Each structure stands twice: as C-alpha cells, then as structure tokens.
Amino acid sequence: MKRIEGKFQLIIGIFFLAYSAYPFLTKASLVPYIFFAPLGIWNIIDGIFQRKSYQNRVYHPGMWIAMVLWGMVIVYIYLFQPAYVKDPVFYIYIIPFVIILALAVYEQKRIRKYQKAIKPYENAIKANPKDTTAWNNKGATIAKFKAYPAAIQCFNKAIELNPKEAAALYNIGVVLMELGNLQEALKYYNIAQDLDPGFKNAKKAGEMILEL
C-alpha cells in the first residue's frame, strides 16, 4: 500500500512543481503560486520515504525530472524576468532546488551502492537460478537498504526452491520484526528453529520477542 501511495505522491509532487512555474510563463505575480513549490517538494520527498525501495524505477527519475524543472524555472527568471530576482520570494525557489539537487545526488549514490552490493548474488543466480543461498543472501543484502518488499520476494523464492531453507525463514522473521510485526516474526523464527534445532540466532530472536 505504501508503495502505491508513494508513487501517487511523486506524481502529485511533480505536478505541483510544474504548476508553480506558471507565473513565470504568464508574467503573473509570484506570490499566488509560490505555495505550490514547497507543496511539490514535500510530496516528492514523502513519496520517496513511503516507497523505501531503492531499486524501483519510478521515484528516482521523478526526483531528477523535478530538479530539472526547478532549474529551468530559475534559469528562466534570470534570463527573461530579471526583475523577479530582486524579489525576496524568489529565493524560496532557490532553496528547494538546492534541497532537491542534494537529495537526488544522495539517492544516486545509494542506488549505486545498492546495485554494487547485490551484483555478486545476481550473477550467482544468473549462473544457477536454483541457488537458494544466493537468493537468501540477495534478500538479506536488500533488507539492509530497507527495501523490505523486494527482500521478502527473494526469501520466498529461496523457500519455494527449498521449503526447508531455515535461513530464509529466519530472515523473513527479521524483516517482519523490523516492520513491527512481532507475532508473525516469532512464527517464522519458530519454523526456522524447528527445521534447524541448532539455529541459535532464530532461538535468540524468538526469546527476545517473548521477553517483550
């Protein structure tokens, strides 16, 4: 649900960013439209954190598109409406642009780090699609980036290939625990321990939940 909400907020955010450029194109006053700018920024940023999935192909291009649109607005002001540069309200446009640029660069670095981290496991899966260890390790790596839906998909794939894959069941429990679903997490910890009685991490995690 959050992924859908995040996508919707990104679309709304980009719309507001584009709409905030309207006064420059019509030579209208800055003030009536200025509030659309921070509203657009807020929707874009909130959409990113709603999705929390660094491999998706929607929010990151949206961030760069928003940044380009914002930059075009600023360039337009300097070239065609220099009188607005003296208006203090104009700097409200400058600050969000810097924020978008910084956030876009930061997210780009995270995506590159993410892609580098999962590449060995993707290569292993490509060589052997039935490698349950590779699927499990890929999921565990993705989970570190808090892309939980994608991580669970990898764990489920490992379990599909080997229903007795205790490590994948344990890792689903870890993700569920991170999401605050303690009872479901405990169920997966117990299943993992039943399959592998010597699985100390599963036992310890289950005991931790029971003590809460």
TrEMBL record:
Q: Which domain of life is it from?
A: Archaea
Q: Does the keyword Repeat apply?
A: yes
Keyword set, alphabetical order: Membrane, Repeat, TPR repeat, Transmembrane, Transmembrane helix
Q: Which residues cross the membrane?
A: 7-25, 31-49, 61-78, 90-106
Pfam families listed in its UniProt record: TPR_16
Q: Does the keyword Nucleotide-binding apply?
A: no
* Stored SUPFAM superfamilies: TPR-like
Q: What ranges cover the TPR repeats? A: 132-165, 166-199
Q: Gene3D superfamilies, alphabetically?
A: Tetratricopeptide repeat domain
Cross-referenced InterPro entries: TPR-like_helical_dom_sf, TPR_rpt, Ycf3/AcsC/BcsC/TPR_MFPF
Which PANTHER family is this protein grouped with? CELLULOSE SYNTHASE OPERON PROTEIN C (PTHR44943), TPR REPEAT-CONTAINING PROTEIN MJ0263 (PTHR44943:SF8)
Please give the name of this protein: Uncharacterized protein
Source organism of the structure: Methanobacterium bryantii
